[in-house]
Amino acid sequence: MFMNFRRIRKCQCVQLLTTGLLLCMVMVCWEELDHHVVSHMRSYTYRYLVNSYDFLNSSFAVTSNHPQRKDGSVSADGGLASYPYLIDHPRKCVDRRSRSSILLLLFVKSSPENFERRQAIRDTWGNESFVWSELGANVRVLFALGVHPDAERRPSVQRALFQEDRVYGDLIQQNFLDTFHNLTAKLVLQFHWGHKYCPHARFLMSADDDIFVHMPNLVKYLQQQSGAKDLWVGHVHRGAPPVRRKESKYHVPEELYPWPSYPDYTAGAGYVVSADVATKIYHATLLLNSSMYIDDVFMGICAKAMGISPQEHVYFSGEAKAPYHPCIYEHMITSHGHATDVRSLWQVATHPTVYRHSRGFIGNLYCKAVKVMLLCLPHYQSTYSCIGAFT
What we know:
Structural class: alpha/beta
Main location: Golgi
Pfam family, one: Galactosyl_T
Pathway: Protein modification; protein glycosylation
Membrane topology: Single-pass type II membrane protein
Subcellular location: Golgi apparatus membrane
């Protein structure tokens, strides 16, 4: 059957061509559309219409049939093996200041070779003496590490770590390969060490070594939460779908996690839990299989199994840096992605003049306008929510 193109109106030709072009674009870009649109729609539907997650206790219960992550090992009951300590400080939380209990046990997840990042943290927001003398808070800061994954470089890096720890006494290291697929082992290290050696700390925090923590604001916030229970606060991911693209480092195969949505969890860059939540997560790691190698998702699985829900704090960062402005510094808790500028940011963000910008009616109005212009731009949505402009 022949089609007489002369009889087809011009508008119909345009419609046909447009439809064909759109179909071609969908075919070419389907993988990206599936990842950024379809999977999120499916995930949100599951999260808000189904949202039972009853499968977690049975599917992630410790059994001998669940393999561990790459470079990990499996204990006799299928749970995470207890890795031996290479560097440990069991008396780190023995209170040397009888006037004050420990407000915060802060673990920084660090890689063995990241000495400069650790030193910058010691010199700025992670300085325990500064926090005590200037803020009146008793805080313990520890760096959690595995061993260098390169067998050839490992001996020299390990000698450097021993030397570093002799000087500063703040490294906690277990004998697992320090790789992305062993981040859950590092999470378990933090909660097990805290439960064993520092159970009296009122709060526990986990943070990356490229995070900036505005310690004065954090201490003030935690002191306001005195006696808090079931507190798990950070930048919350709700209804996040598993990444199925094999080229992504966050790829999770369906054999490991076949469901369309993760339980709610906080960004692993930095979050805080109260002492009772830390205890519950510790017990969950004994009951649940830790084959989920994305540590913040595994944290969400543990929390869901124990009946804990994360709470959003608009000034805990997600995956990006916070905008640099005094009106932001006044409320900032964490900001992510600071591998090289921690010292300079510490100087400007904690300077006494920061708080002058919002004083009085005009100053408050000025800062509100600045925060609306900065935080309500899509560029900063992975850092602070637009809601932060109005709090």
